[in-house]
Design a protein that fits this description.
heterodimer; A: 399 residues; alpha/beta; BirA Bifunctional Protein, domain 2; Rossmann fold; eight-stranded mixed beta sheet; four-stranded mixed beta sheet; 13 helices; B: 218 residues; D-Maltodextrin-Binding Protein, domain 2; 2 domains; six-stranded mixed beta sheet; five-stranded mixed beta sheet
């Protein structure tokens, strides 16, 4: 026992003190922004039936879920993300609702990732979902909300990359690729692995011109950021429609004034298979991967028995905090309030002071000390607080 | 931004690093400090071009790049397959060419034709497992070794090995041969996902120039 109990399992850790204060602060800032857009809080359970996150729903691979059983033998799983839960809630509680539903959530999510890769098994996500609203204005609202929330947290240098899954799916359908091949190709394209994609397309004997368009999505250099060019290359209605949607989206983003943070990449695809339309990721310096991911998932609600479009995003709060810290932008939080340190026998006076101050809304930390010297040491460890020493025999002194 | 950010390269210690530097020099990117013999420094800087370079073990290069400790990395395809890190694989640099193979004594060929269980010694357990489980559908017992993998079949630790083959001379000297080829390998350039979004112009220019150069050489 003893020392061996001090460790946490791999992938999880304690967050405390100043770091946690900063984390709470940015959570507050994010929430404040999301609330300004009219989103209402929802709390979903930490674990759900495994089927809520199953392969059909298209979320995290089963091997990365924490699974366990309840007393009746049902398989349960800790949530890897919130979106399926929110969709389930919407289907359950808003079954007859036809107008827009705006939800926001915040909480910890769990992934059983491979060991010793330095990946966290538990992170805090905050996000928002806008359901039953198919318009391009809804897409724009999500992206602008992300930009506003990041700015409100103090981030200045960030980039939101926007894609449209339908563009890719349209070309795959035209090329007659089956689901399994499409999934593999999606992995190659999202990893920008040009050679992998090329090999796969050759194996599948995809027509040259169609292969060229697909390969371009995986090509970082030529890229697929120019919408006019993308429209020219696409030769099917689905893909063309996707490009039109992005062009419309761009016009709305201009009205919001968020266009300068946004760039397009039609090769942007997600590992979550439930995305059906516009998808986006937010990037900034200091962390190795996107800190924001989001997109449209128009068919997910129907998995739970309610038909309707939806779009959402989530911020990985821990990554955002890390990025802010590395960029020197972390909020510097000054401790405020007062310290009331009393010698033996001076408790009544110190308590009276503490209660008066607390009634006024000032935070007071009340603690016994041996003598003045100890009080001074104590106060030195609580910089930014007003320290008062209550000696046994004399009047209180400010330190 | 007032001051241009450093672009950091993680290179694989040894032959690959030398070849990568020569290639980069041809497109006007150099690092004099790195050419100094006997230097014990770990990080080398080219202040004028705002570049940093460091050397790492091959399997660690994708790790540095995934976490953004390096924006760009150069390492073998074998390490990328084995590590499975989430990075953009943007260029085949064409050098460091070799093959990942199943090797063993000639009589072991027979063992690969059936689905019976065999023992495989390798430095690359992920690649070996993927090949036998997902491509050949053969049950195998994988033994991870850290070097001189050829010893496996010779001393009777394993039936076959999965290893990199360049010329095949070590194999031949020890009475082993290539039984099956898993995939061709070569040096690859990888890029961090965030760097690609945030430093798009600089990195794109670099890749374009390298691509042009490689096309000329080919």
């Amino acid at each position: 026992m003893g020392k061996s109990l001090l460790h946490t399992p791999e992938g999880v850790r304690d967050i405390y003190g100043e770091e946690y204060a900063r984390k709470l602060f940015i959570e507050h800032k994010l929430h404040e922004t999301i609330r300004l857009y009219g989103y209402r809080d929802i709390q979903t359970p930490t674990f759900e039936f495994f089927d809520v996150y199953s392969r059909e729903i298209g979320t995290t691979p089963s091997s990365q879920l924490y699974k366990f059983f309840d007393k009746e033998g049902n398989t349960l799983s800790l949530r890897p993300d919130f979106t399926p839960s929110c969709a389930r809630c919407a289907a359950k509680y808003f079954m007859d609702e036809t107008g827009p539903i705006r939800l926001t959530y915040s909480g910890n999510t769990f992934l059983n990732t491979s060991s010793l890769q330095g990946k966290r098994g538990e992170v805090t996500q905050m996000g928002a979902e806008l359901m039953m609203e198919p318009s391009v204005e809804a897409d724009a609202e999500m992206i602008c909300l992300v930009a506003d929330a990041l700015k409100n947290c103090g981030l200045t240098d960030f980039q939101i990359t926007v894609g449209e899954v339908e563009y890719f799916k349209g070309i795959c359908a035209q090329a007659g690729l089956d689901g399994e091949v499409e999934l593999r190709l999606r992995d190659f394209i999202s990893a920008k692995n040009y050679f992998g994609a090329q090999e796969l397309l050759e194996q599948q004997k995809v027509r040259k011109d169609q292969a060229k368009v697909l390969l371009r999505l995986a090509d970082m250099v030529l890229g697929a950021s120019d919408l006019t060019e993308a429209a020219r290359l696409a030769q099917n209605d689905r893909s063309l429609w996707a490009v039109e949607r992005l062009e419309e989206l761009y016009r709305v983003l201009q009205q919001y004034g968020t266009d300068k943070y946004v760039s397009f990449d039609l090769g942007l695809l997600s590992k979550y298979n439930y995305y059906t339309g516009v998808i986006f990721k937010g990037y900034t310096y200091g962390v190795g991967d996107a800190i924001v991911t989001g997109g449209r998932y128009d068919s997910l609600l129907s998995c739970f028995g309610k038909k309707g479009p939806a779009i959402g995003f989530m911020v990985v709060v821990d990554d955002l905090l890390e990025a802010l810290t590395r960029q020197g932008l972390a909020p510097s939080l000054r401790e405020d309030g007062a310290l009331a340190l009393y010698e033996e026998g001076a408790f009544p006076g110190a308590l009276r002071y503490a209660q008066e101050q607390r009634a006024k809304g000032v935070c007071v930390e009340l603690s016994p000390v041996k003598d003045r010297a100890e009080a001074v040491r104590f106060a030195a460890g609580r910089k930014g607080k007003q320290a008062f020493f209550f000696p046994a025999k004399e009047a209180p002194q400010r330190l | 931004m007032d001051e241009k950010r450093y672009l950091t390269f993680a290179l694989t210690k040894g032959r690959l690093a030398g070849k990568t530097l020569s290639l980069l020099e041809q497109i006007g990117i150099s690092c004099e400090e790195m050419r100094e013999p006997g230097s014990r420094r770990l990080v080398f800087v080219n202040e004028a071009q705002r570049l940093k370079f460091f050397l790492a073990k091959g399997p660690d290069v994708p790790t540095y790049v995934e976490y953004g400790a390096a924006d760009i990395g150069v390492t073998g395809k074998d390490e990328l397959l084995e590590e499975g890190r989430r990075v953009y694989e943007v260029l085949d640099l064409g050098f460091g060419k070799c093959r990942m193979c199943v090797c063993g004594p000639a009589r072991a060929k027979e063992l690969l034709l059936h689905h019976e269980m065999i023992r495989v010694a390798t430095k690359y357990p992920v690649i070996a497992k993927d090949y036998f489980y997902n491509k050949k559908h053969q049950t195998v017992d994988i033994i991870k070794l850290n070097g001189s993998v050829e010893l496996g079949p010779i001393v009777g630790l394993s039936d076959v090995i999965v290893d990199i083959v360049e010329t095949g001379s070590t194999l031949r000297e020890n009475g082993l041969e290539v039984l099956e080829e898993i995939c061709p390998l070569s040096a690859r350039m990888i890029v961090n996902r965030v760097s690609m979004q945030m430093e798009t112009e600089r990195i794109k220019r670099l890749i374009l120039e390298l691509r042009r150069l490689l096309a000329e050489e080919a």
